[in-house]
Amino acid sequence: MSTVLERIRREARLKPRRLVLAEGDDSRIVRAADRLSRDRLAEVTLIADRDVARATARKAEAALLGVRLEDAGDAAAIDATRVALRAARGERLTPADADRYARDPVFQAAARVRDGRADCFVAGASRTTADVLRAALWLIGTAPGVSLVSSFFLMVVPGASERVFVFADCGVVPDPNPAQLAEIGCLAADSFERLTGDVPHTAFLSFSTRGSAEHPRVARVREALALARVRRPDRHFDGELQLDAAVDPAVARKKAPDSAVAGHANVLIFPDLDAGNIGYKLVQRLGGAQAFGPILMGLARQANDLSRGCSAEDVVEVATIACALSAANRAPAGTGAAPGARS
User: Fold this and answer.
1) Which residues of the chain does CATH 3.40.50.10750 include?
2) CB–CB of 89/80 below 8 Å?
3) SS3 category, 302
4) Residue 295 carries which DSSP code?
5) Cis link prior to 158 (omega < 30° from 0)?
6) What gap in Å lies between CA 292 and CA 306, rounded to an integer?
7) H or E segment to which residue 163 belongs
8) pLDDT tens figures, 275-299
9) Which CA distances in Å does 97 have to 76, 89, 104, 129, 165?
């Protein structure tokens, strides 16, 4: 197992967090719930139609020992979610919509986090990112001082010496403006440090390095870098950097010899969702890297999305990451903006 994943698991076991999973009709989720509980990585609650979840568990040969199974049709759970939705959305939901969302296991999971009955939730194996983000934004909201929810992938690149990166944003914000890109960079650097314990070196990526090209897209990255440096002068940020200058020491010595980041960047900030989504999938599919995410950033309390192509093991890792991050994410729950794009 990856060194960074071992570290995250050790931290999770020190104080298991209250995790909610919301797709009990999916065999991958059921197997992951069983594994998370057996390995003492989290205190797991599974929300679903109870009979369906039990049938799914039997078929998946998952004992669900230690997993708390909550029926999504339970009147108390529906009422608690309806109350949370009313507090979060006021009169913006029609009674019919409020009732529909109150019966939805993903919204019930988010309501538990909002009310302090859980520390984090994970969903998305069979639901869209829009569904997961809507529940998180409506019922948890953004953290103080954060303008939007974004995401990152934790990338573990194999080799003689394992390399760990955070790639952002690869799953939520399609076309960030400079202020949003700066915020993504700051949040991604913080997330890297929390998960790895190492110092983040953050590169704002472009097709230009230090003025080698002029274009409005390059200017946007430069502006984002300047804003990030003002916002977090304690962090190592640099840009605009091409990918080779960011990660290859030999290229960095030629293109950006005075940079504290170039050549050994471990946090890569992509200029838009096209670049980020393509970039992480190239490294994963052709480079053999493990990609864990998308991990949401900017929420008052932690929630994680899942790729619909995930395996049960992917769910375990993403849920464990959610638990590790939730320990540092205890702002009061509130309300947020509209959901973003599918990764």
Assistant:
1) 150-290
2) no
3) strand
4) E
5) no
6) 9
7) strand 163-168
8) 999 999 999 999 999 999 889 999 9
9) 18, 11, 11, 19, 41
Structure tokens that stand for 103 in this block: 């019966």
Q: Is the domain 3-141+300-326 a CATH 3.40.50.10950 member?
A: yes
3-class SS string, 235-285: CEEEEEECHHHHHCHHHHHHHCCCCCCCCCCCEEECCCHHHHHHHHHHHHH
Reference 103, options 50, 140, 53, 48; nearest CA is 48
Give the Å distances, CA to CA, from 55 to 22, 105, 123, 159, 218: 16, 17, 20, 42, 54
pTM of the model: 0.88
Residue with tokens 């991604």: 188
Angle subtended by helix axes 178-196 and 216-231, to nearest 10? 50
**Token couple for 63:** 């004992």
Query: CA-CA distance, 129 to 134, in Å (whole number)?
Result: 8
pLDDT surpasses 80 at 185: yes
Sheet bearing 150-157, strands edge to edge: 68-71, 42-48, 17-21, 120-123, 302-305, 290-297, 150-157, 163-168, 267-269, 201-205, 236-241
- Placement of tokens 């992951």 in the chain: 32
Q: Locate tokens 């962090």: which residue? A: 235
Locate CATH 3.40.50.10950 in the chain.
Answer: 3-141+300-326
Q: Which residue has the tokens 């991050």?
A: 325
CATH says 150-290 is which class? alpha beta
